[in-house]
Amino acid sequence: MKIKFHHILIGLFLAASGCKKDNYDAPTSRLSGRLVYKGEAINVEYNAVPYQIYQPGFATKSAIQGTFDPDGNYAQLLFDGTYKFTIPANQGPFMWKELPAGTRDSLTVNLKGSQTVDIEVTPYYLVQNAKFTATGRKVTATFDIQKIITDANAKNIDRVYLYVNKTQFVSGGYRIGDGDPPSIAGSAITSMTNLSLSFDVPTITPTQNYVFARIGLKIAGVEDLVFSPVSKITIQ
Amino acid sequence: MKKTTIISTFALLLVTGACKKDSAFLDVPPKQVVTSDVAFSDPNLVLSILADLYNRVYDFSGLDNGWASFADFSESFPSENGSYYIVQRTGWDFGSWGTWDYKYVRDLNLFIERATAATKLTDAQKNQFIAEGRFLRAQYYFELVKRMGGVPLITKSLNYDFSGNVEALQIPRAKESEVYDFIISEAEAIKGLLPVNVSEKSRATPAAVLAMESRAALYAASIAKYGATTPQVSLPGGEVGIPASAATGYYTKALAAAKEIISGTAGNYSLYKQLPDLSDNFANLFLDKSSSESIWVEDFKANGGKTHGFTTNDQPFSISDEGLDAGRLNPSLNLVEAFEKLDNTYAPMATKDGSGNPIYYTDQLDMFAGRDARLAGTVLLPNGLFKGKRTEVYAGYQLGNGTVISSSDATITQDVPGLGKVQVVGKDGPVNGAEFRTQTGFYIRKYLDPTVGSGRRGRGSDVNFIRYRYAEVLLNAAEADAELGNYAEASGYLNQVRVRAGLTTPLVLTAANYFDRIVHERRVELAFEGHTLFDMKRWRIADAVWDGNSMSVADLVTNIGKATKRSTQPFGLWPYKYYNPGDVNNGKWIFKETKPSPVTGSNRFLLGNYYSRIGDDVIAANPKIVKQPNQ
C-alpha cells in the first residue's frame, strides 16, 4: 500500500489527540505545617515519625505516607479535596488522641489551594533552653527539661543524650563517635533545670571547623525521642 | 461423468461428516489438562502435585533464595558491589520479611480436600497424603505467624458465589495465639498418620512434625513471656501478642514435643558424630545427606535439575571454580568472637597483650586455636583448608617501625625495603571495597560444597538445606526446660550439643545465667540457618541488639556472650605479615580489628519491625484486617 498524504494526516491527528486524555496535571496544592505544642515546635528524629493522609470516599483505602522533618515540619503536594490526617499508633514522642473503638483520631483537612495546618500534640517532655558551647573540641550542652504530661499518662525519662554530627541531621543513627553517646540516666536526674552534657569531638575527615548538636530525650516506654532544636557550633 | 463422481463423493463426505452431534464435535477433552478426579486416582500423580507443594515451602534463608538471604544482621559482611546497601542502611523497612501467599494456602486446602474426596486411593495412601498436606499448611502458617502475627486462619478452600457480596470471603485476623494453637494441634493430629522413617529427609515424617511443633510452641511461649517487656508491640484484639499467663503451657508443650523426638519414638535420630576432627565433623553434618541428625531438609540434586549457587557465590576467591564468581558472604568478627574458649569462657580475639603490644602468631590459625570446634566448622578461617588448598588472607606488610605497606590487589606489587617489589596483600583479600573476596578476613564454611565442580555456575551445588535438625530439638528442650525451672535437666540437653563441639566441661545452667547461655548457644550452633531474626524477635531483644548506634572496637570486644550485646555493624579481623629482619617475630602474623570501609550504616530495629507490615492492597480488599502496631 502506498502511503498517501491523508494517511499521514490521520496518523498525526491520532498522535496529537492521544496525548491529552489520559494525562493529569501534577498535584499543585501544598499541604504543610509542623508539629507544635502551644506554638512551640516539637523536634523529632529524621525519618522516624511517620504521618498518614487518607482521602476518604474511594473504594480502596491506602494512605499517603510521609515522615516529619527533624524540626517537626511536614509538606505534601496533593490534589484539592478532603483529607484525613493521622499519625500511626505508638509513633512520636507525644500523645495522639485515641478514639474509644481503639482507632486513632484524625484531623480533617479541606484542601483548596495550598494550606498550612499545624499539628497540635501533647509531648510527654520538652527539652528547653538548650545552649551549646565549645572549648577547643569539647562541646558542652546545658539545658532544662519540662514535663508536660503529669497526669495518669505520665511517663518517666529513660535517658537524655547529647548527639553531635557533621551535618544538620543529628540523632542516634546520624552522629559522629562510636559506641554510646554521652548521656544521663533518667534515674540520675534530680533537678530538671541546668542539666549538662559534654562530648569530645573526634577528628573529622575532611576537616570542618563546625559541628551540629542537639539534645535527645528518651522517654521510658516510647520509642521516638524528643529533641531540642539543632544548633551549629564552631569548634577548633 | 468423472467430474460428477468426484463432486458427489465430496458432497457425501461433507454430509456424513456434518452428521456428528454438536456436543460430540465441540466437547473434546483437553489433553494438556488433567482433571482433579483423574489426578487423584493415581498415587504417582498425587505425588507430583505434592512435589510442587513441597517445592513452594517458604524459607527465610535458603540455599536457593540467594546468598544474600544469609547476609544480614551484622553476622556477616556482603562482599559484592551491588549489596553494600545491607551494611549502609540504618534499619529495615516495616514491610521487610513479610509474606502473604494465600494462593499457596488455597492450593494446600484444595489438595487436602481432593485427597480426602479421592475414591481410587487406598486409605493408607490417603492418610499419608492428607497428613503431608496438613503438615505443609501448618508449616506455612508458622512462617506467616512468625512474620505477621495473627493472620486469617483459612482451613478450607473458599469459593466466590458471584453474588456481588464478598463479605463471606473477608476473614479477620485470628489471634496470634490461635495460629500457634492451630499449628500445635495439627501437629498432634497428624504425627501418628505418618510412617516413622529416619532415612526420609525431604518429606514429612513424625519427627519433622514434632520438630515443627516444638519450635512453634517455643516461639509462642517466648512471645508470651518476653512480650511483656514490649507492651507497645501488641494489639488489643490479640492479633499481635500473647498473654503472659500462656507461657508455661506453651513451654510444657515445646518440651513434650522435643522429648518425643529425643526418646526415639519418632525415629532414631542422634547428633552427627562421624569424623574424629570435631570441626570437620560439624561442617560435614551439612554435607552428608544421610546424616542421622537432619530431620527435614530441602534436597537438591546435581545434574538432576535442582541445584543452587551457594558454593559458586561464596567459595574462596583463589580457589574459585568460576573465575571472578566467589567470596560474597563473609562472616563477621562479631560472630567469630562469640565462639567460646574450651574452658567455657568468652574472650575477644587476642590481638594485643596487656600493655597494648601486638601478639605475634606463627600460623594464622594459631589465633583461633583452643576455641569451640564449631568456629572452624562454620567459618573458613584465614589459611583455612578448602578443596585441598589453603586460603591466602592478609591485608599487608607491617614493618618494625609500624608502617603498613598495602595495595589494592594481590597483583599490584609494592616496594618492601629489603625485599624489592613483592605481593603485599593476600589473593583472597582483605582489601576495602574489593568485591568477591573477603573483607572481614573470613569465608563461610557451612554448606560450602567440596565436591569437584560444585563452584561452577553450570553444575551448581546440591548440598541440602536443613530445616529441622536434632541439635535444634535439643536446644529447644534445653530452653523450655530452663524456662520451666528444671535447670539440671536443661543443662543435660545443652551439654550434649556442646560436647559434640568439643566443650567437654559441663556447663551448669542457673536462673541467673540460663537466658544468656541459651541465646548464645543458638547463635553459634544455628548460625546462618535462618534463626537469628526470629529468635531475636521472639525474645524481644532485637531492638536492644540492633539499637542503631555505631560500634567502636571497644564496644565489639566487651560484653561477649551477653544476650543483649550490641551488634549493629559487622567487623573484620585483618591479618598482617610482620616484616622486621633480625627481629625474633619476623615473618609472623599480627591481627587488627577492622571495620570494612563500606560499613557506614548501623542496624536499627524499630518496634514496628517486630511484625511485618500488611500491605495496603490486602487491607483494602479486606477491611476486617487490623493493622500492625506501630504502623
Task: Give a short summary of the structure.
The complex is a heterodimer of chains A (236) and B (631). In chain A, 6% of the residues lie in helices and 42% in strands.
Structure description:
The complex is a heterodimer of chains A (236) and B (631). Chain A is mainly beta and 236 residues long. Chain A has one helix and 19 strands. Chain A folds into two domains: 29-122, Immunoglobulin-like; 124-234, Immunoglobulin-like (Sandwich), CATH 2.60.40.2060. The N and C termini of chain A lie far apart (81 Å). The mean pLDDT of chain A is 85. With 631 residues, chain B is an alpha+beta fold. Chain B folds into two domains: 36-60 and 88-237 and 248-268 and 608-619, Alpha Horseshoe (Serine Threonine Protein Phosphatase 5, Tetratricopeptide repeat); 302-607, no CATH class. Helix content of chain B is 35%, strand content 8%. Chain B has helices spanning 2-18, 22-26, 36-39, 43-55, 85-88, 102-117, 123-148, 176-190, 206-226, 247-262, 278-285, 310-314, 333-336, 373-378, 470-483, 487-500, 514-525, 532-538, 542-545, 553-556, 616-621; strands spanning 76-78, 294-298, 329-331, 379-380, 385-386, 389-390, 397-399, 404-405, 414-416, 420-422, 443-444, 465-469, 572-579, 589-594. In chain B, strands 8-7-13-14 form a four-stranded mixed β-sheet, with no helix packed on it. A two-stranded antiparallel sheet of chain B has the order 1-3. In chain B, helix 6 runs antiparallel to helix 7, helix 9 runs parallel beside helix 15 and helix 16 runs parallel beside helix 17. Chain B is globular. The mean pLDDT of chain B is 90. The interface between A and B is medium-sized, with 21 and 30 residues.
